[in-house]
Amino acid sequence: MAAPRQAPTTQFAIGVRQFSWSRGNRRLTTKIFYPASGTAGGNPIPNAPIADGIFPVAEWSHGMGCTSDCYASQTHDLASAGFICPAPSFSDNTNIGSVYNGNWSKDVSEVLTRTLALGATAGDPFAGHIDTRAGVGVSGHSMGGMTTHGLLTAWPDNRIVAAVPVACVDMGNPAGLHANVLFIHGDHDPTCDYNSARAAYAELPSPKAFLTHVGADHGQYLTPDYRYYAQTRNTFLDWFRWSLYGDTAARDRLRGDATSNGTSWQAALGQ
């Protein structure tokens, strides 16, 4: 985990760069959202100058039939909060077999490698701005949530120190990574079995937590107009602030972040 420091307390403008990467014959079109210089608010600005500072990496993986653009709320929230967020668009985005055989998890590892390399590439706009000391974070929803859990189990990536699988199912036995893992799930999810995610949570050592949206379906709690979206957003961001910045104040806010009439919270943070 990162050495203790405070995460940024003000929001950033958002920049975005697009890359046409690949892993073997698999196309990995990736948008990287990042903190940009300028006034916060508004849409991401293509190729905007990166803000002053050194920022950790927190990746996002989309769900079935989508691209990274389907999850603007999550990718933009991460960038505006002070994270560099690579968000691949998987070319076989309806093929759940590519999740179960590990291709999506391996794709994410490749995207992480390519993203981190930009920080050490002379002349690249990200050079000197990517914090690699604390490891990396990964997150995603549905097939992207399964991909995220796969990176902790069957296809582990030991650079990962924080993970947020959203609406996932259990992808296997923990691989022993030292990662802080937050599950987010609706307990009326008709697509990805809530009880399977609960089993995945039970298998992991602390630090871990589980945010349940009571009565919620497969993903309504990821949309800003949902009544309890603030509980999703604030818990999600503070989990990464704690895990990647070492911000203990963010850790201490987690229970308050998660608490509402429409949510329940379970945690073993190992404090």
Can you offer a commentary on this structure?
With 271 residues, the chain is an alpha/beta fold. The protein is 28% helix and 23% strand. It contains 7 helices and 9 strands, in the order βββαβααβαββαβααβ. The chain has a 5-stranded mixed β-sheet with strand order 5-6-7-8-9, with helices on both faces. A 4-stranded mixed β-sheet has the order 3-1-2-4. The protein is globular.
Widest sheet, order of strands? 5-6-7-8-9
The number of strands is: 9
The helix/strand class is alpha/beta
Shape: globular
Terminal CA distance reads 13 Å
- Give start-end ranges of low-pLDDT stretches: none
Spell the H/E element sequence: EEEHEHHEHEEHEHHE
**What is the tally of helical segments?**
7
What is the share of helical residues? 25-40%
What value does the average pLDDT take? Answer: 96
Gyration radius over CA: 17 Å
Major pleated sheet: 5 strands, mixed
Determine the strand fraction and express it as a percent band: 15-25%
